[in-house]
Amino acid sequence: MSSSAHFCFDYLHRMTSVAYITPNFTANAVRFIDALVGLYDLRIVIISQESTSLLPPWQQSRISLSRQIPDVFNSDALTSVLAEAQKRVGPFHRLLGATEQLQVPIAEARKALGIHGMDVETAQNFRDKSRMKHLFEEAGIPCARHTLVTRIPEALAFTKKCHYPLVVKPVAGAGSQTTFRVNNDIEMQSAFQSLGHKAAEGVVIEEFVQGEEFSLDTFSLNGNVLGQTINHYIPTPLECMSNPWIQWRVILRKEITGKTYDDIRTSGVKAINALGINTGLSHMEWFRRKDGSIAISEVAARPPGAQFTTLISRACDFDVVLAWLKLMIYDEVEIPKIKYSSGAAYLRGQGHGRVARITGLEAIRSKYNDIITDVRIPKRGQEASPSYEGEGFIILRHQDTKIVEDALKDIVENVRVDLE
């Protein structure tokens, strides 16, 4: 064997094998894979329900092995395909996925294959919202009053102790897609009907917290907090889900180091410690009540969605997705430091059907051209999005927080997307 051949064999032998699991190749998944394939010391394995032929050619060229399976959420099937893949690429160093519902199946595959990472119990702490609330209560962490039920009579009994309005969601929900605000017994029954078979698995009913909603996104390494950012929802996601016409906005203010947020920063660290996360990026939803007190709603052990990774990237002037991958794969630390305020305006269609017209956009782009960093323009003929994120978005940043706040308000009030 030639010396160059020996070098190539030795290099490949030393390469680290990492599997990335995703149900579909959404724009967000493609972004994560794009950052992953830029790490050239890895053998990259992709497991998905779709064919990697859907990925851009430059990504396909960097993938060592791919497998398409019917259900990535089936832990037995996932473990089986990963075990087979290990015979081709060697033992996996890490298993990664950014989808909420994948965290438990991935943890179960880690356990079966002896791979380092978040264990099954910790993953369940984050997925089971009732279990999460009990851990919060045991640790003295402020959260909404709640109960776990499986039947309507149990739900109605809780309303005698904690009055309407209430929030209803499945025990293993994700985001606001299957979360309902209910104001009376009829709406409670309707929510249960909408949840269908999920109701038998458990339904969390909790106090509807009156106040403002925020997120707290935290980078951690070996149990130590590296950095935190706070996003402010205007209005709350649940209000947006209840009113499809609302074009909402999110702002990440750079001024979060003062006393205003001391309580959530402290409680946030207690919460993720109680849940057991060791290394990673966690996404927490929390409220500031009208009386000034806080209540943590829930926490996810994965990077945030809804363009939040872009918002954090722009505010801190670094690539959050790449930083998360390096943290998870190499334990490599890049501490996020907030340099700007950033914000996102979510463009949501008015009416039903497909995108027919977009008005007011050119004036907005001209007015804020110097501070707009990212744009996804709704396209004519595009189907209405099933997500509360809407059909498009505009992201901007500036040193002056008020300029960002005023621009976001201007955008949601003057850009209109019509569906027909």
TrEMBL record:
The keyword Phosphoprotein does not apply. Residues 133-329 form the ATP-grasp domain. InterPro entries: ATP-dep_AA_Ligase, ATP-grasp, ATP_grasp_subdomain_1. It comes from the Bacteria. It holds the Pfam family ATP-grasp_4. This is ATP-grasp domain-containing protein. Keywords: ATP-binding, Ligase, Nucleotide-binding. PROSITE patterns: ATP_GRASP. Gene3D superfamilies: 3.40.50.20, ATP-grasp fold, A domain, ATP-grasp fold, B domain.
